Amino acid sequence: MLSWFAVCCSGLLHINAAYKGPRWQFYLFKPLTIAILIVIALMGGQESSYTYWIVAGLAFSLVGDVFLMLPKDRFIPGLLSFLVAHILYSVAFWQQFDGPMIWWLPSLIGAASVLIFLLLLPNLGQLLIPVGLYIAVIAQMAWGAGEFWMAEHSQMAAYAFGGALLFMLSDTVLAFDRFKGPFRTSVLLIMSTYFSAQGLITASVLFAH
Q1: Of 48, 88, 160, 180, which has the most beta carbons under 10 Å away?
Q2: How many Å apart are CA 135 and CA 146, to the nearest integer?
Q3: How many CB atoms lie within 10 A of CB 33?
Q4: Which DSSP string do the residues of 20-79 spell out, in sequence order?
Q5: To the nearest 10°, the Cα dihedral for 138, 198, 67, 124?
């Protein structure tokens, strides 16, 4: 319980520093939040391939966080780091799926992803292909988590699916903030959904069987 309290405090300190400073607090607590989640997963999860895939995804997320926080723009390395993280999460989720495919789910997620891409399209410029690929990868990650939940309806699967959906929401707000223009509450929305997403995905490890 104390470890989850530490996650909440660290995440809130990062969000507060994004608006009010100091800068050292901003740079420290974002990667620290993910680092604590890695420790939670390693200490509380079973020794299984699912745990290792999720921990690897958290590790690449931490790297992506560092790239995106650097004063000089490192958007592409950050994007690639999170792309790898979503692929690792996808492997973890799809490995758990064993059942008939629910085809309306990818149709719904795919339609939402295409709509987001079309809204961003006029502002993407040379990043059209990287952003399009990223959207496709995170969409299939959410699809994998959704199929897992539809097949099993376990607490583990529910946490995984909830985390995947929140990750899509966080990245969508981030994309609109970057390509359409920032707005005051964007950091709060992006980071609260991001930390919640990573927290739920980490929690799924604790219920792995």
Answers
A1: 160
A2: 16
A3: 26
A4: H--HHHHHHHHHHHHHHHHHHHHHHS-SSHHHHHHHHHHHHHHHHHHHHHSSS--HHHHH
A5: 30
189 conformational bin, left if phi > 0, alpha if psi -120 to 50, beta if neither = alpha
**pLDDT means per 10 residues in the chain (209 residues)?**
92 94 92 97 91 97 92 85 97 91 93 97 94 96 96 94 97 94 90 97 90
Q: Report residue 146 as tokens.
A: 């959704």
Question: Does residue 107 contact residue 153 with C-beta atoms inside 8 Å?
Answer: no
**Of residues 58, 108, 116, the one with CA closest to residue 85:** 58
**b/e sequence 167-188, b meaning 16+ C-beta within 10 Å:** bbbbbbbbbbbbbeeeeeebbe
